[in-house]
Design brief:
The chain folds into 2 domains: about 90 residues, Beta Barrel (OB fold (Dihydrolipoamide Acetyltransferase, E2P)); about 300 residues, BirA Bifunctional Protein, domain 2. Helix content is about 30%, strand content about 25%. An 8-stranded mixed sheet has the order 6-10-11-16-15-14-13-12. A hairpin with a 7-residue loop joins β4 and β5. The relative contact order is 0.11. Magnesium ion (MG) binds next to β15. 4-amino-1,4-dioxobutan-2-aminium adenosine-5'-monophosphate binds next to β11, β15, β16 and α13.
């Protein structure tokens, strides 16, 4: 019976046939242990010399790492393996013999592994991270579909710059100048006025010369936008959505979390509500912690975010940042003009900002004034301003960075491992 490693639990004590690769192998004179992978998972195949024809044992003993094959064998319970099963092999058919696979079981440097990303993806660790990424994507669609959101796809080629003009990738659009999208938000605001509650999920480009463990040049963002939604309501959606993702990963990625050695006790408690702290209070907190030279109006850097996050065991919202630190579209606080109705969600364990969001300005005159203050072209933003001319309503939304969330839940140090083919400051290959 042909099956996959993820399905072997349905075939205990039965004979199965699996198309697989050799992830690793060790053997003695009497027994060969084949670490098999098929994309759905990893399983140990045991070949016992005395129980198979001699040519099968010789083939199993000599087969090289990453060769492809069909194996047949009987599924057996094995409490020690993360999967809980192993395969007592009775047949091996070689499909393709791999010669000198570059990634051996020894330690390799990161640059070498990144140069071989197309192969590194096959490793147990990278496989686990990609499965967790996939579960977050699945749980994202589930959450938004169950809560009345429609998916809307904003354009990738754009003529506007929602998050500031310094980080744009330029390209030619025939005779015109165009940019790769750095956020779909402005289009999602238009979509929210048509469909009420919407979300997008797409690639995002930032020509940022940042070389940190949290920055990619190309990353994926989930951007919900809601009409008739005010600041506090927006935070409730965010904490419920993030709780849903975390609980889904805990439930459906047990093998992967175990493979990665993730301390899941740090994730179990991630359930709404999350704490909120204003920028003003964050500043006082930081000064108490010894960050004495931070002044009102300074942006919070990674060490600041980490210090704040460390005093909570859940993600924390930092709200009401100074207007001067944030993009043009954010709604001022009702009682004071120098801060905006925004919140960044900071993940625990030093993973930094995973969400940026806000209530948007819905009043025409104020939006026009802000565009002018930011030196943006009223002509280019004509359509965006028109949203404030025809039945404008309070509305809010946010953007969650997929890779930072994957890195956090997987417990990997750097976002480069949380996307299949990372685009980094000095890396466009493979
Ligand atoms: O805070 P950002 O820049 O917010 C926006 O783009 C808003 N327009 C979103 C919205 O309200 N619709 O980005 C949102 C999130 C960040 O919190 C972070 O998780 C992720 O996107 N992000 C990055 N992830 C990886 N590499 C980068 N260079 C990132 N820049 C932002
Ligand atoms: Mg941000």
């Amino acid at each position: 019976m042909k099956t996959t490693i993820s399905e072997v639990h349905k075939h205990v004590d039965q004979e199965v046939r699996i198309g697989a690769w050799i992830a690793n192998k060790r053997s003695s004179g009497k027994i060969a242990f084949l670490q098999l992978r098929d994309g759905t998972g990893f399983i140990q195949g045991v070949v016992v010399k005395s129980e198979v024809p001699d040519e099968i044992f010789q083939l199993a003993k000599s087969i090289t790492q990453e060769s492809s094959l069909y194996v047949t064998g009987v599924v057996q319970k094995d409490e020690r393996s993360p999967l809980g099963f192993e395969l007592l092999v009775n047949g091996v058919e070689l499909i393709h013999q791999a010669v000198d696979y570059p990634i051996t079981p020894k330690e390799h440097g990161t640059e070498f592994l990144m140069d071989n990303r197309h192969l590194w993806l096959r490793s147990r660790r990278q496989h686990a991270v990609m499965k967790i990424r996939n579960e977050i994507i699945r749980a994202t669609y589930e959450y938004f579909n169950e809560n009345g959101f429609s998916k809307v796809d904003p354009p990738i080629l754009t003529g506007s710059a929602p998050e500031g003009t310094t980080e744009l990738f330029h390209t030619k659009y025939f005779e015109e100048d165009a940019f790769l999208s750095q956020s779909g938000q402005l289009y999602m605001e238009a979509a929210a006025m048509a469909l009420g509650k919407v979300f997008s999920f797409g690639p995002t480009f930032r020509a940022e010369k940042s070389k940190t463990r949290r920055h990619l040049i190309e990353f994926w963002m989930i951007e919900p936008e809601m009409a008739f939604c005010e600041f506090e309501e927006n935070l409730v959606v965010q904490e419920e959505y993030v709780s849903h993702i975390v609980q889904s990963v805990l439930k459906n990625c047990q093998i992967e979390l175990k493979t990665l050695g993730r301390d899941t006790s740090k994730l179990e408690n991630i359930k709404a509500p999350f704490p909120r702290i204003t920028y003003d209070d964050a500043l006082m907190f930081l000064r108490d912690k010894g960050f004495t030279d931070i002044e009102w109006g300074d942006d919070l850097g990674a060490p600041h975010e980490t210090a704040i996050a460390e005093s909570y065991d859940k993600p924390v919202f930092i709200t009401h940042y100074p207007t001067s630190l944030k993009p043009f579209y954010m709604q001022p606080a009702p009682d004071r003009d120098d801060v905006v109705l925004c919140a960044d969600m900071i993940a625990p364990e030093g993973y930094g900002e995973i969400i940026g969001g806000s209530q948007r300005i819905h009043e025409y005159d104020l939006m026009k004034k802000r565009l002018e203050e930011h030196g943006l072209s009223i002509e280019a933003y004509k359509w965006y301003l028109e949203l404030r001319e025809y039945g404008s309503v309070p509305h809010s939304g946010f953007g969650l960075g997929l890779e930072r969330t994957v890195a956090w839940l997987s417990g990997v140090e750097h976002v480069r491992e949380s996307i299949p083919f990372p685009r980094l400051l000095n890396r466009l290959y493979p």
